[in-house]
Write a structure and sequence with these properties.
Order of helices and strands: HEHEEHHHHEEEH
Helix content: 25-40%
Shape: globular
Strand order of the largest sheet: 1-4-5-6-2-3
Strand content: 25-35%
């Protein structure tokens, strides 16, 4: 088996979805509470409901993903500086199908498709195998937004990184 194909197999299993939102990183609950505040009595908030200063403590760890339909495509509108540092790349302005190869794309957008189908937040977690950094664990919160109240047109992703290798693992 080539290293490329074993890499692809590892990538395909790098992410687990958690609709129960059992966060390990407590600040995710803060952002989730803000999202609920922005939406009020509506099913979904709109992008106009928040300003960058509303994201204090989260801003560098936020990515905004535009959702397009017919054909379905996802584009990184903005990737926060702390995410860029962790990934060692800036994908701002790029379509995800051009950032990730075809063997990785479906897993990479799995949480976004979950947002579109269920119209509510989702937690994802796993290792950063997709960035060839499997020694780093991630936890993310994907929050859907709709400017019309009908179609989801934006997903806000909040990311947290931690070491996947503890001191006990090194013994």
């Amino acid at each position: 088996m080539s290293s490329r194909s074993s890499y692809a197999q590892g990538y395909a299993s790098f992410r687990t979805l958690d609709p129960d939102l059992r966060f390990e990183f407590e600040p995710m609950n803060d952002l989730l509470a803000r999202w609920h505040g922005w939406r009020g009595a509506r099913e979904l908030p709109a992008r106009k409901d928040f300003e960058p200063w509303d994201l204090k403590g989260h801003l560098g760890w936020i990515a905004l993903i535009d959702v397009e339909y017919e054909p379905e495509r996802f584009r990184f509108r903005l990737v926060g500086a702390d995410i860029v540092t962790g990934l060692s790349r800036d994908s701002s302005g790029k379509y995800l199908d051009l950032v990730y190869g075809p063997e990785f794309y479906e897993t990479a957008i799995g949480s976004y498709r979950w947002n579109l189908e269920h119209r509510k937040p989702i937690r994802a977690f796993g290792e950063m195998v997709h960035a060839r950094k499997g020694h780093i664990r991630f936890e993310s919160l994907d929050l859907p937004f709709s400017s019309t109240g009908r179609e989801i047109d934006l997903i806000m992703k909040r990311v947290h990184y931690s070491s996947a290798i503890s001191v006990a693992d090194e013994d």
